[in-house]
Each structure stands twice: as C-alpha cells, then as structure tokens.
C-alpha cells in the first residue's frame, strides 16, 4: 500500500467570484495524525468536502486513499470515516442499533457488522454503554460511540471534526490513546478543531487563513519558530501578522 | 472584597447530585472562570446564581443582598448570557438590541447612545440589519453579550460563551471581557476548555458537582505534583513499550513527541542509564511546564 494517504496539489475552489480555497498543497502520510486548523471562514470545510469526495475542485488535483478526488470521488466515500462533535447518532436508538443502522446504510453485510461491533466494543471499551439509549449517554461516551460508527467499515482515513469537545480531560486522553493506536496500525487521522488542547495532540498541523495554508509543521516546532508561549498565541499572532487591520466577525 | 459568595450549595435531581457543598467567592472586578467538562455542574451552579433554580441547601449573596430574600435588588445588577443562543433569530441585530433595551426601559436617546457604545466593541455596527440567525457563531455570541450588557450590569455571568467559536473570535471575545473588567464589571464565565482559563484572574476546577481546586491559572497548574519532560522522538509503539518498562516512569504520547512523568521526589538523572540503553540521551529531554490539564487529570484520577 502507498505511504501517502492524502496528497493535494494546488487545490482551488471558487464560488462565483469568491475563492474559498486558494491553491493549497498538502501531503499527509499514512498513519499520521494531522491537525487542520483555521478560523471560521478560512476555507477548511470547503477543503475537507473536496477531500471527502463531496465537492469537486475548480482546479488542482488530489488523491485520497490512493483515489483521484475528481474521477473517483464515489469510491473515496467508502474509504473514509467521518466523525463530528455535532454528528447525529440517532438519540433514541441504542449504540448497537445505531451501528447496525449505519452498517446497513454502508451496504455492509450482517455478519461483517456483527463481527465489527464485537471488535469495536472491545477496542473502545464500550461495554454496557453499547446497549444504552445514545441520547442519554454522557458526552464522552457519546463521542466514543460516534467514533465506533465512523470506524465500522474499516476506513483507511478518518476525518474528525472537534472530536473531544466538552469531554473531561481523563476521558480525552483515553480517546486520543485510541486514536494513537489506530494511527500505529496505519489509519490516517485528519482532525479539525478550534481548540488548542486538541491540536497539541496532533503529530503535525497546518493553519489555514483566507483560503491559503499559511504555515505547517509539528506543534512544538511551530511554537518555537514563532517564538510563542503556546499554540493558541502562535495561532493568533500568525493570523494577525497576515492582516494587521483585519477584523473578521 | 467578595462581590458574589455562594456557600455550601447542594442541588439534587432525584438520585443525581448535581452540586455538592459547592462554595465560591468572586471578588469585585475580577474575571473568574469555572472550568470543567460537560455534566460537571457548571450550568446548574450558574442557574442557581441567577435564581433560576432553587437549591436544596446553601446560600448565595450578591452585592451584599441575599438571593432568596432580596433578588429584586440583585436583578438590575445582573447580566446573564445562557449557553443556548436565546435571541430572536428572525429579528435583526439592531431589532434584538432594541427589544432588550425595551425590557429594561431604555428608549430614545438613551438607547441610541447605549447601542452605539455596544457597537464600538462588538463591531456589529455594519451588520445591524442582518438577521440574528444569519450571523456567524462568534458574531452571535457578541450580540448575545451586547444584549446582556444593555442595562449596565455590575456582575456578568456567562455560560460557555465561546463553545464552538473559532480561536480568533474567541480571542476577540476575551478582549471585550478584559475591557469590561477594566470598567469595573465583575465576570463569572464557564468553559469546558482548559486553554480558555489563562486569561482569567482566577479559576476553579469543577468536576462531578464539586469544586476540586481554585486559584490563579498559574497556581492551579503549579499544584501538579511531579515532573514532566518532553522527549523529541518519534513516538513509535516500540519506543513507548520500552519506556513503559522502565520502573518509575510514566509515558504519554504527546503529538509528535512524548511526555515522561516522574514523581516529584525523583530526578531524570536517575534514568540516564536506562534511557541510554534505548539510545536516548538525557539532553534530548526538555522539562515541560505542567499544564492545567495535567493538574486536572491528577485531581480527578486520585479521586479527590
């Protein structure tokens, strides 16, 4: 298998006269945990939608899981998993019912789903929470359940949107240890977040502003490079430097 | 001097104890942060302070008035911004402001000058005619804050005002809070995010209905018992396993590197030989300052 999970070159998306994504290039290796940061309106969502095969670029090219994002966008969907903090598990179904539902929506066969539920339940220590109504679960367990749904079809790449928002730090550390072990097995993890305590856990991060990637690197190297105290102040300073009089809403 | 004191607040919902012997004192003119995960009791506590729910036990005093006996005196001093966006989505920015001004009896010239003052720091002036539902997350929060400030409260209580807001808007929101503080407003703000706390004067860790610890952000982090070192090495499973075999060391992957945890009485020099066997020179380790999260984990894991 190829060692590059995501490779995009000069990717651009225009909506009318507005350029949402402005010629970004990026390589993410297999098994890497990559943090994709930027303020609202920076173009992150548009970029991710192109990577997930949900939106075609205006120009540029890219491959995700070895598949061309223009010609093979349908196949990409089967090879990626997606989890969001806002991601709707059916609140009045149990975890197991949610997994069965999503499994059949993916067209997976019943015995495969049953096997995966067993595996994931052990791996993520879902235990009794698997058979509880998901709407009544504490935030941390709900997120862990959402992760198991995203992993059901054994995706090679996992897209996570603010995966551990609002979770207690002990639980978050455990959640990230699960992500690290997935990465060690070769799953590539692509994380977007507004919170630096999540960004710090990533192996590498990039910062997007006004459609462009303005910097990238390992978190601690970026902090040192910009002479900042921490990731948050590095981020703010970097964006302020771009446009000193900028006053985004 | 304390502007707000809550003493031994207890609140149960059936079998669930949402708040247990929760006491807090917030000084006049300070920004105090309540930090803890979802479900810790932050919102319940805030609702108690705003007299929206009754306690089973305990007492709240604000500006010298008792909340049960004299809430009418407290009300004009209090500005509250709930966690859920509660403005009118189909009214414009300006219509929302005007509506809230009306509630507090602010009209004509008095309203207009207040509105203009609020625009100076919210920067919402250019969006005055935009419907609230069409605003970005950061702008919505600034509008909600403006509405809560309409009657010039002395105490501002904000329930997770920046959840889901991007870092730049969050930064701007805190700039506004600092500005208000400099004008003498006392602010109590809750957040689930450790990285928000650094700009508060003082903060309390909240978990499982209890206050675990309080102090300045520096004091809270400094409460950590032990030493942390950052190791700039590729955190491979093999390396982690090998490090975990060394007695006395705890290892946690941290982004592109590793954190090694030692007991407070221990020193990294004691591990020079065992690390050398893994081809790690002690020079590769840099002391890392314990973060608020490290301290929070230590407090909750020890069960205290």
Strand tally of chain B: 14
Computed CA radius of gyration of chain A, to the nearest angstrom: 18 Å
Round the mean pLDDT of chain A to the nearest integer and report it: 91
Largest interface: A-B, 44 and 44 residues
Unreliable spans of chain A: none
Please report the distance between the alpha carbons of the first and last residues of chain A.
Answer: 44 Å
User: How many helical elements of chain B?
Assistant: 10
CATH superfamily of the largest domain in chain B: P-loop containing nucleotide triphosphate hydrolases
- At CATH level 2, the architecture of chain A is 3-Layer(aba) Sandwich
What spatial order of strands do you see in the largest sheet of chain B? 6-7-8-3-9-10
In short:
The complex is a heterodimer of chains A (249) and B (304). Chain A is an alpha/beta fold. Chain A has helices at 44-51, 73-79, 95-105, 110-123, 139-151, 169-184, 196-199, 219-225, 231-242; strands at 4-15, 18-29, 33-38, 59-64, 67-68, 80-84, 157-161, 188-192, 204-209, 212-217.
Tell me about this structure.
The complex is a heterodimer of chains A (249) and B (304). With 249 residues, chain A is of the alpha/beta class. Chain A has one domain: Rossmann fold. Helix content of chain A is 37%, strand content 26%. Chain A contains 9 helices and 10 strands. In chain A, the strands form 2 sheets. Chain A has a 6-stranded mixed beta sheet with strand order 6-7-8-3-9-10. A 4-stranded antiparallel beta sheet of chain A has the order 2-1-4-5, covered by helices on one side. In chain A, helix 3 crosses helix 4 (110-123). The longest helix of chain A has 16 residues, at 169-184. The model of chain A has no long low-confidence stretch (mean pLDDT 91). With 304 residues, chain B is α/β, with parallel strands linked by helices. In chain B, 32% of the residues lie in helices and 28% in strands. Chain B is built from 10 helices and 14 strands. In chain B, the strands form 3 sheets. In chain B, strands 6-7-8-3-9-10 form a 6-stranded mixed beta sheet, sandwiched between helices. In chain B, strand 4 (57-62) and strand 5 form a beta hairpin. In chain B, helix 3 (93-103) packs parallel to helix 5. The longest helix of chain B is centred in the middle third of the chain and has 16 residues, at 167-182. The radius of gyration of chain B is 23 Å and the shape is elongated. In chain B, 42% of the residues are buried. At the A-B interface, strand 3, helix 6, helix 8 and helix 9 of A face helix 5, helix 6, strand 12 and helix 10 of B.
